[in-house]
Structures are given as structure tokens and as C-alpha cells.
Specification:
The structure is a single chain. By secondary structure, this protein is mainly alpha-helical. The protein has one domain. Helices cover 80% and strands 0% of the residues. The chain is globular and about 65 Å long. The two termini are 32 Å apart. InterPro entries: UreH-like_TM_dom. This is Copper resistance protein.
Length: 243
């Protein structure tokens, strides 16, 4: 099975990557969620209204992930048609980015932070648009603000986008990014005591180490699959033809 194919196992893997990347999400998005909540006028902070706004923020955020995945996959498709052998390079890049994600999640190496810097130029131009939507009191505002929030520089997202680039099929890449985004929801949406418990579990060194090892195993599986396919192609090219 091709690990860049979007059958159930890779979609499940994308969801798990989002869930296990929750420690990073707590750090980046937890403060944003709190700020957005407190920006709502006190008279409008009924639990039902707040829950609807928070869910809307995150649906907007996930929709941005899906759009980014589709656009990057479209670029991958163009590159595949324009350059011979680029598909293999893109798949190796995707596996390397997943390994960098794992190292970051486990706190073994923070090199992925350098990748985040690549998105700051775009973010400086998009972020002011969100300020004009504050304070958010309606669902359409929340969805719009969430869709802007989704473009915030994030090394984990960039790792997944590298996978989207290798997939090179916009609809499949969008599905994968959606699965990843929904994987982040439990941590980002958790509140009160549940949030503290989830946060403690996600941040625990053993959890982070397990998450990293699972992601590395998946990336190594991708590389092994590519190596085996390359070997078979070499054997096929060496085989004598029969007429």
C-alpha cells in the first residue's frame, strides 16, 4: 500500500498526528482561544454561545488547513508533470518533515522552529485582517477569524503540507489536512478540568516520546516503501524484453 495514498490508514495517521501534536497546539493556540473567549462581551458569554463561537473558530481554522493542503498538492501535481523524478524527491521530503515533526514533539530537537520562520512574511500581512473582526459575537465572524488564524506559522502544519505536496492530489490532500485538523480539536477545545487533564497527558514526556516514535515509524515506513518501489523499478528496467 502506498503510504501517500489517502485510504483509511493514512487518514487515521493524519488524525493521530494532530492529536499527538496537541502539546504544540496548547502552546500556540491555547492562549489564542482564551483571548478570543475573553474578547466576547461579558453579557454574551453564555455557555452555548461560547461553545458555538469556539467551534466556529476551529472549523474556520481547519478549513484553512484544507485549502492550504489542496493548493500545495496542486503545486505538487504541476511539479510531477513538469519534472521527471520529482515525485520521489517530494515523498522523501515529506518523510523527512515528519521526522522533524517527531523530534519537535518529543523536545529532542527544535529545528522545526526554523521552518516556521518561512511563514512569517505572509502572516504579517494576513494577521491585521483578524483584528478588524474583533470582538467576535457572531458565528460568521468566528469562522472568518478562524480561517485567518489557520494561516499562522506552524512547523507541524508545514510538516503536513510537505506530505500534501507529495500526495499531489488536491482533494486527497484536503481530506488529509482536515483529518489532521480534527485531530487537534480535542486539545484546543477542551476547557476547565478536562483541559488540565488533557494538557498534562499530552505534555507528559512519555506521551511525547511515544508520539515521536510513532511518527518516526510512519516516516521510516514511507522511506522503506519508496526504496522497495525504486528497487523493483530498477529490476524491471534490467529485465530482458521478449518479442
Amino acid at each position: 500500500m502506498d503510504p501517500t495514498d489517502l485510504s483509511l490508514p493514512p487518514l487515521a495517521a493524519a488524525f493521530v498526528f494532530g492529536l499527538l501534536g496537541g502539546a504544540h497546539c496548547i502552546g500556540m493556540c491555547g492562549g489564542i482561544m482564551s483571548a478570543l473567549t475573553f474578547a466576547v462581551p461579558p453579557s454574551m458569554r453564555q455557555p452555548g454561545r461560547l461553545a458555538g463561537l469556539l467551534l466556529s473558530y476551529n472549523l474556520g481554522r481547519i478549513s484553512s488547513y484544507m485549502l492550504a493542503g489542496a493548493l500545495v498538492a496542486l503545486l505538487g501535481s504541476v511539479l510531477n508533470h513538469a519534472l521527471d523524478g520529482i515525485a520521489l524527491v517530494l515523498r522523501v521530503l515529506a518523510a523527512v518533515m515528519l521526522i522533524l515533526m517527531a523530534l519537535y514533539i518529543a523536545n529532542w530537537w527544535k529545528g522545526l522552529l526554523r521552518v516556521e520562520a518561512l511563514g512569517r512574511f505572509l502572516w504579517r500581512r494576513i494577521e491585521p485582517l483578524g483584528r478588524g473582526l474583533m470582538p467576535v459575537v457572531k458565528v460568521p465572524q468566528a469562522v472568518a477569524l478562524g480561517s485567518i488564524w489557520g494561516w499562522m506559522p506552524c512547523g507541524l502544519i508545514y510538516s503536513m503540507l510537505a506530505w500534501s505536496l507529495a500526495v499531489a492530489e488536491p482533494l486527497r490532500a484536503a481530506a488529509m489536512m482536515g483529518a489532521f485538523g480534527f485531530g487537534t480539536l480535542p486539545v484546543v477545545l477542551a476547557t476547565g478540568m478536562a483541559a488540565r487533564r488533557v494538557s498534562l497527558w499530552i505534555r507528559h514526556p512519555a506521551t511525547r516520546t511515544l508520539a515521536a516514535l510513532l511518527i518516526i515509524a510512519f516516516a521510516v515506513w514511507q522511506l522503506w516503501h519508496l526504496q522497495s518501489m525504486t528497487g523493483m523499478d530498477d529490476m524491471a528496467s534490467m529485465a530482458p524484453s521478449h518479442h
